[in-house]
Design a protein that fits this description.
The complex is a heterotrimer. Chain B is an alpha+beta fold. Chain B is built from twelve helices and eight strands. The N and C termini of chain B lie far apart (42 Å). The model of chain B has no long low-confidence stretch (mean pLDDT 88). Chain C is α+β, with helices and mostly antiparallel strands. Chain C has a single domain (29-114), classed as Alpha-Beta Plaits, CATH 3.30.70. The chains are: A alpha/beta, B alpha+beta, C alpha+beta. Chains in contact: A-B, B-C.
């Protein structure tokens, strides 16, 4: 059986170069597919995925704990929902989001529940 | 200067299948802005991946949502198989395609019922769900559960579908054609349905693409993107084209979903004719290490699955970017400028699945 | 554009039998492989505890010392993982749904087997 079509590529950049990379991909006609955050020992690792037809390009950067990150909403108006969710769940300080819900978007009992790995959180299960 | 009124929509509302909250800011009857608030069904399932072995987590991934359940399980399995380089047997891939299409029919019939309920047509709502009961019976006969299929596992599928069961499926779908035909006729041609839906929630192709719309939301605005054309599972061997409309309003989205039901029935016929005999399961070897991105076409749109392993039997991260989450942004864009009476239609038109969105 | 496409369905509904069953007088038979509840053949159980470790909802509890196997039927989601991983294949999934638990028979959801 044939393999699914579409290439995947991973580009790792410094967090200051993310906006520039995003603008380059937007000029190639790519659309924002998703924004992903993973809690690591040093902080949070952000991956922005862009797609055109069936190809996927992932832009990755590392944000240390306590640092801030510039929003990509100046280039992609639709990114504000992802960035609000990541800020509410992971505690990453994303600045200048075009539509900023100031922490009231994802209301859960424990603030920033995903910021620490569950193995370190203790808890019932 | 006119003052604005703020009306809360949800979390409990007769048209919402799941709790979702909006603060609608209105001037008279026109909506100026909508502020969403989610978190009512947050269960922290993504964090649970660190506490359940990767082969057991498929049962958790399936239960992220009741309507899109099978494809969540399948997407998780496909992501882990991609990461561990497991080669799934062919028959298992065809069976996954079969269950995905059955899942798509039942999900679209559910949505058609809810959309009819949103504009007040209760009788049509019940008629759609009555047709859906036959599909749920087929699903229970082939998998063991009405909504939670429980048939996917990392490396293949857990159970087989015999030739007699395939014949039964095809005969039930054939006998359902008359009822589905009546439903399609009402949704597509009825004057009252058209009166409510034509022109509501217009989304241009450029806006849909830039705001990140996926699925029928994107295809009804004219952009022909269907993740099934990538050819994952057995879709590479099947004959179909993405269904598009150009108007970009609620009526166009109804047309796209109605036609997709017919397309899914055709795809199931193709699967039943072409499915090869063979193994159902390939045992995974080694431990999951590395990462993988997978995209699957759920009934609501393209879903992205991401897994990361660190060499132990517990995965480090599992992420689902569900289609509803991507569609909330264009929904907010269409809400601005519409009237209060149209809000249930516009909220339902993206086919909201909030349990998927919040995991 | 049709004006009354629903009229045919409405008239048919008025003059035909209901689509619903008259439960509890008519019960719905489950299908051959419906996942209804978990059953154990306790004579084959070796108390290894694998079913308990692999249960996604922690519905099964195994006590090796007391040779006891316990399941909470209300916590069980009938995924079938226990039946899949049991080395002696003594667990199976049966079609009938587990019994309802009311205030009168509280505690009936827990099924305990002991070799004491």
């Amino acid at each position: 059986m044939r393999e699914p079509i579409g290439k995947q590529e991973l580009i790792t950049v410094e967090k200051s170069c993310v906006l520039e990379e995003v603008m380059r991909l937007a000029s190639l006609g790519m659309r924002l597919v998703q924004i992903l955050a993973v809690s690591t020992a040093k902080g949070t690792e952000m991956t922005y995925s862009f797609g055109k037809d069936f190809d996927l390009v992932n832009v990755r950067c590392e944000v240390a704990a306590g640092e801030s990150l510039a929003s990509i909403t100046p280039v992609w108006r639709g990114a504000f929902l992802y960035e609000n969710e990541i800020r509410d769940l992971f505690g990453v300080n994303i600045e200048n989001i075009s539509v900023d819900y100031k922490g009231n978007f994802y209301t859960v009992a424990k603030k920033q529940p995903f910021a620490v790995r569950s193995s370190e959180q203790g808890g019932a299960i | 200067m006119k003052e604005c009124t703020i009306i809360p929509f949800g979390p409990q509302h007769p048209v919402l299948p799941e709790p979702l909250h909006f603060d609608l800011i209105l001037k008279d009857e026109t909506i100026v802005d909508a502020v969403p608030q989610i978190g009512y069904i947050h269960r922290g399932l993504e964090l649970l991946v660190e506490k359940r072995e990767y082969q057991d987590y498929v049962f958790v991934a399936e239960r992220v949502c009741g309507i899109c359940s099978f494809m969540h399980g399948m997407g998780y399995c496909m992501a882990v198989e991609d990461m561990m380089k497991i080669s799934v047997p062919e028959r298992a891939l065809w069976l996954r395609t079969f269950w995905s299409e059955l899942s798509r029919i039942h999900s679209h019939l559910l949505w058609l019922g809810l959309a009819a309920d949103a504009f007040g047509f209760e009788n049509l709502f019940q008629a759609s769900w009555r047709a859906r009961e036959y599909i749920l019976d087929l699903i229970e006969a082939t998998t063991g559960g009405r909504v939670i299929f429980g048939t996917c596992q990392v490396g293949g599928v857990r159970r087989d579908v015999t030739a007699e069961q395939f014949a039964q499926v095809l005969s039930v779908l054939e006998s359902l054609k008359k009822e589905l035909g009546t439903l399609s006729d009402i949704f597509v041609n009825d004057a009252s349905v058209k009166h409510r839906l034509v022109g509501a929630g217009k989304l241009s192709a450029k806006d849909a693409y830039e705001l990140g719309a996926v699925g029928p939301m994107l295809r009804a605005s004219g952009v022909a993107y269907d993740a099934r054309k990538r050819g994952y599972a057995a879709y590479g061997e099947l004959n179909f084209e993405p269904i598009t409309e150009s108007a970009g309003d609620c009526y166009a989205r109804v047309l796209v979903r109605v036609r997709e039901i017919w397309q899914s029935i055709d795809l199931i016929k193709q699967v039943a004719a072409k499915i090869p005999a063979g193994e159902l399961f390939a045992k995974p070897e080694g431990m999951p290490t590395g990462e993988a991105f997978i995209r699957v076409e759920q009934p609501r749109g393209e879903a992205v699955y991401y897994v990361r392993g660190n060499g132990t039997k517990f995965l480090e991260r599992f992420r689902v970017r569900t289609p509803t989450f991507a569609n909330v942004v264009p929904m907010i864009a269409t809400l601005k400028g519409s009237t209060l009476a149209d809000v249930p239609n516009l909220v339902l038109t993206i086919d909201p699945c909030i349990s998927c969105t919040e995991r | 554009m049709s004006l009354f496409p629903m009229a045919g369905t409405v008239i048919k509904n008025l003059f035909s039998r209901p689509a619903t069953r008259l439960y509890p007088f008519v019960k719905r038979e489950p299908f051959a492989h419906t996942r209804g509840h978990v059953e154990i053949d306790f004579s084959q159980c070796i108390h290894c505890g694998i079913c308990s470790k692999r249960c996604p909802t922690h519905a099964i509890a195994v006590d090796r010392a007391k040779k006891e196997w316990k399941i909470d039927h209300l916590a069980c989601v009938i995924c079938g993982n226990c039946a899949l991983v049991c080395p002696k294949k003594c667990l199976s999934i049966k079609e009938a749904a587990s019994n309802a638990v009311t205030r009168a028979n509280k505690g009936a959801e827990t099924e305990t087997h002991t070799n004491a």
